[in-house]
Structure formats: structure tokens, C-alpha cells
Amino acid sequence: MVITPVVGYLLLLNEEVVPLAEIDDRFRLISSELPWRLMLVYYGSFFTGIAAAVYQIWCPRIVKKYDSAIEYVGAEFNFFWDRDHFSYKLQQVRERLQAVPLWQQQLVGVRHLAEKLTARAKDEKEAGNHLTQAMTGWWHLADNDHLQARRAFCVLGAIGGTLLAIPSVWTFFEVTISAISNVFWK
Fold first, then answer.
1. In the chain, where the domains are located
2. How far does Cα 116 stand from its chain's mean position?
3. pLDDT score at 31
């Protein structure tokens, strides 16, 4: 993301970059002095950088740290198994479930988790199941936070990836055609 403004500066303000980047007329837009491939790389990098910033800012830390609820439970279960931490986690999940709209609870599949967690565990195994369900529900709720930011991340990332792919694919085909023509029509 830091390099994108530098490339933009070089493209727009530094008159030396255009002649240096001038490889062939096919690199140019129809009526521009700037090579079209460099422009697409610039804008692709820009959109990809913005998408990365959106992800870093709005994606919950727990989701960035653990790829799945299973990984989260596996890594943190022993910590929350301690009596004080156990009670805290159950209470934290109960409070979170009260604040989350019903549609999101249904989307995540934790709609009836609050009732399950209020029941007292009969034995250690059931307590472990409660903790596992609470931790899994917690991760899934975090994974569905900031849905608008997630959508923006997807759209910006797709635009950036597409803009970066166009000059790459175009160049790949030109190099391939050139190589084939040199081999067969040399």
C-alpha cells in the first residue's frame, strides 16, 4: 500500500518514468502518454492496498489469528478451562448473544446457544462441551462481524486482482504467441 502513492507520483509527476517504461507502442492507451499496463498495475495495486487496509482494520483479531473455530478451540481451550476463565468466557458469550440480532444468530447457527449455556453442567465432560460450544460460537460470531466491511474487502480485492491480472494475462499471451511463432516460423 505504501508503494502505490510512490508509483502514482512517478507516473504523473516525474517525466522520466514514461520514457523509461516505454517498451512498445502496444503498452499505451489509445490517447495517453502513459503506458496502459502501468496504469492498470497502479490502479490494481491501489485497490488491492485499500482492500488490505479494510481487512486489517475491520477483520476481528481472533479471525485473523485463527483460521477456523476448531483451530481457536484447540489453541485456547486449556486457558479457558480454568474456573475463572471458564465462567468469564461463558458470561462473555451470553452477553454477546443478547446483543447480536436474531438473524445473525441464525446465520451463524448459535441461536439456541444461550439456553444451552445457562443450564448447569452435570459433569466435567458436559462442562467441556459447554466451553467448546461457547468458544466455537464466539469465533463464528466474530467471523460474521462487520459484514459491510467484508463486502467492501471482497469488492475492492476483486477489482484490484482483476486490474492486476489484465496486464499479466495479456503479456503472458503475447510472450507465448511470440515464443510459438519464433519456434515454428523462424
1. 3-59+147-184, 65-143
2. 32
3. 43
